[in-house]
Amino acid sequence: MKTMINKVKSLLAILCLVPVLIACEDVNWGDPNANNGVNDGTDKSGYGSNIALADVTEASMEGQLQTAMSYLVDIRMHKYQYQRSLTIDVFAGYFSQTHNYDGRQPTTYYYPNNPFIRGIGGESTKLYAVVVPAILYGTSFGRSDLAAIGKILYAYSMQCMTDAMGPVAYHDMKVLKEKYPIYYSSSEETYDSIFADLQSAVDTLMKYQPSVSQLMKVEGKEKGSPCNWEWQRWIKFANSIQLRMAITMSNVKPDKAREIAERVVNHEIGVLEEDDADIAFSAEENLQIYPTGEQGQNHPLFVIANSWNDIRLGATLENILKRYDHPLLQHYFLKNGLGGTPSMQDHIYDRRTNAIAAPKGTQYVGIRQGVMLRTRSSTKENPYLAYSSLSLETVASKMSFPWIKVAEVLFCRAEGALRGWNMGGTAQEFYEAGIRRGFSDIGEVGQYFSYKEKTSVNKVNYVDYFDQDNNIEGRVNVGVKWEDSDDNELKLEKIITQKWIANFPMGLEAWTNFRRTGYPRMFPVKINLWTVGRVDDEIQLRRIPHDEAPTLSEDLENYNTYTLPKCEGGINEGGNPLWWDISASWTKGPDGLVIPKNNL
Length: 600
Known about the structure:
The chain has helices at residues 4-15, 58-72, 77-85, 88-91, 125-137, 144-165, 170-174, 187-208, 212-219, 231-248, 254-265, 300-306, 315-324, 328-332, 392-397, 406-418, 427-441, 448-451, 488-502, 507-517, 553-556, and strands spanning 95-97, 110-111, 287-289, 311-313, 348-349, 356-358, 401-404, 529-530, 587-588, 594-595.
């Protein structure tokens, strides 16, 4: 794994390729507290080695921000695989791995030797290098809108990072600091900094109001750009991130969370929303980028699942969708043996009898978290390769890369209203609108009307056709229909469960909501080999640990006062809750199931 110092060195290597620079060996962003944050080329404080204002152009900043948007959710296939599909998407219950990577990862719950556990921690290195010039120098060119957009992109990335890992080097990475000591802000401090940057960006855009032609140079001229060349949508993006964060911290900072949520929802521009709560389809799109349809430019999940055969449907997602009879299952997934490369298209064989347990094309079937994985050689050696893969048609050409969805924002407002906040409507109104929007996103809005009236679930249990030892009863038993007579905890379970479905494939938010509320009720980890800081099978992983201290001699020379990040509780381990996570106070019933208790 890369140490922090190596990450920053890789940033500087990237900067050498960016045309705004005069010379790679003369790079220094300067001390942000000196000269009002503008580097005159004389500062040698350790924030790099010299990029001055003269080295930056307006055109380069516009081009770099356009590049940054493709890194916000890194769509390079291997990057997406390591940062999302093999880690947080598994912890969220959406997917599971199919094989053990030649013995390197015998189960998804394996640490410290899991080669992929760094997850989203590797996402930022290319992004920061291309947003920092605009943040530091956009205003100097009379383009404060560029600084604002840069702040929004940086804040979004850091929100993802801190919710996955806890403390982050928020301020030092913002100036590309390359030498120790590296200062890590606590995740609570990071939240405060993100709120400040996002509010600053909103205020700037309200005043500057960039033109369509200016935003085309940032977003690109292709139809379907993330914010449709509208400065108002950049504000909605910033406000929606703040609403997401306010909801995330609502259990631990309820008063502050309420103040922020009410401010952004009732702002002049507001947050992402449906245009009219009485219609089934909203004209307002999710904030997302789209696959081009060209070779190599489809959604990374298309290749990860169907060419590399590395992931399949997760058992928790399979069972919950079956219990609700939700069309997302058929929309995004295939029945067993119909996906992947031809050699993986096979029946599922029972491991004890070698008899066919599930004939090809008969079952939607996922893989449980924590099952012992086998090699990728063949379906006879590893029947998990024949489990449900992603739909070739849907994922290859229609699946977008969402940053934040309208449905998520609607569910956030539902939870806020449940907590008594002024969200501009009732919890029921926003809950039902969120469900409707989720159905609209997959083109199945006609099924919404009967779906929202479901008062019970199908009593479907999970069956592992290869290994019956992994079978387990379904966990989710709450209906869909909003019932005023339900207590608030049950109402919250309904909100989060439906939000978890609608947010697919956004694994980080799904995982975050599970960690902070205990919902939806996911299957426990089957085999837990997380040996450093034991992770509870039911409560599950609470954070992705940071890298250890540097080991290379040249890094140790600069080690100075650097220490591992000061994590909540002082422990840099996967079982240690983040600051907004109250799972340490939850109880378990006689059956061992977690009993969440949220501060409603």
